[in-house]
Write a structure and sequence with these properties.
Keywords: FAD, Flavoprotein, Magnesium, Metal-binding, Transferase. It comes from Parabacteroides merdae. Its cofactor is Mg(2+). The longest helix is centred in the first third of the chain and has 22 residues, at 34-55. α1 runs antiparallel to α4 (134-148) and α4 runs antiparallel to α5. 35% of the residues are buried. With 268 residues, the protein is an alpha+beta fold. The chain is globular. An eight-stranded antiparallel β-sheet has the order 1-2-3-7-8-11-12-13, covered by helices on one side. Strands 4-6-5 form a three-stranded antiparallel β-sheet, covered by helices on one side. Strands 9-10 form a two-stranded antiparallel sheet. The protein has helices at residues 34-55, 63-70, 80-95, 134-148, 233-245, 251-255; strands spanning 2-7, 12-20, 23-30, 76-77, 110-113, 118-121, 154-158, 162-166, 175-180, 187-193, 196-202, 224-230, 260-267. It folds into two domains: 1-51 and 137-265, ApbE-like domains (T-fold, Roll), CATH 3.10.520.10; 61-128, ApbE-like superfamily (T-fold), CATH 1.10.3980.
Length: 268
């Protein structure tokens, strides 16, 4: 279900989708032209739905679901966009010492063939899961749409875990974003975002075992939360997953491979 409204008194346009990419989606855009903002919202809504249709492994009609069903039997040729995503995921896997892994079993179990842009699984039990990549990728695509349409101030939010700040808050020098401890509800950090992206990953009371260490195949059960602020929302997204899994001593080593603004590991 989608909702949108323009608040003339504050010059704010709010668009929302209650369930897409597995969570709620919200966008605030600042501007004085409600018709333009409404048109941009329609483009954003369409783009998010398109990406969900491609990347959602729980949708039996998505491209990723087709890959997961068939790639263990024969090489599956994928579209140009998904091919580039797979190549990026392989590169990020290497840069994060294998802690970011969309296969959860190791990229050595996957054959990517450039000639026909195909993917093949060496194990029929293997599947790819882009849940730790897709929202960051969607934020990057949304940022392109906003820039193309001249939107200079906006805040985009996937379920309070993947956030894009374009420009600054209309009444300040940054967009303020607070982080709360999911177990105690106490505030643990106040971040200031401007032309940057924030990703948050962690275990919660409702989902205490949802992140898998691809090196061991076991769930990460530590009570902790990770936040990363970066220019590139994809980088922020994949690093929070990697930092949740790797030991504290590997965090600065892996971080040195990327251009990021902030990183924090919170013990809950």
């Amino acid at each position: 279900m989608a909702y949108s409204n323009y608040y003339a008194a504050s010059g704010l346009f709010h668009g929302s989708m209650s369930s897409v990419m597995g969570t709620q989606f919200d966008i605030l855009m600042v501007g004085s032209d409600p018709r333009l903002l409404g048109t941009v919202w329609e483009k954003v809504e369409s783009e998010v739905q398109r990406l969900d249709k491609m990347l959602n492994r729980f949708d039996p009609e998505s491209e990723v679901s087709f890959v997961n069903r068939e790639a263990g039997h024969y090489p599956v040729t994928v579209g140009e966009e998904l091919w580039n995503i797979l190549l990026n995921c392989k590169r990020y896997n290497e840069l994060t010492e294998g802690y970011f892994d969309i296969t959860l079993q190791g990229f050595d179990q996957v054959l990517l063939t450039e000639e026909d842009k195909s993917i093949f699984f060496f194990s029929e039990s293997l599947h790819i899961d882009l849940g730790g990549y897709g929202k960051g990728y969607a934020l990057a695509k949304i940022r392109e749409l906003l820039e193309e349409n001249g939107i200079g101030k906006a805040l985009v939010n996937f379920g309070n875990s993947s956030v894009l700040a374009v420009g600054t808050h209309p009444c300040g020098e940054y967009w303020p974003v607070g982080l709360d401890n999911p177990f105690t509800k106490e505030r643990i950090a106040d971040l200031k975002l401007s032309d940057s992206s924030l990703s948050i990953s962690g275990n919660m009371p409702s989902h205490p075992r949802h992140i898998v260490n691809p090196h061991t195949g076991t769930f990460v059960e530590d009570k902790k939360m990770v936040s990363v602020v970066a220019k590139d929302p994809v980088v922020a997204e994949i690093l929070t997953t990697a930092f949740m899994i790797c030991g504290d001593e590997r965090v600065p080593v892996i971080a040195s491979q990327f251009d990021i603004y902030e990183k924090h590991v919170y013990k809950l």
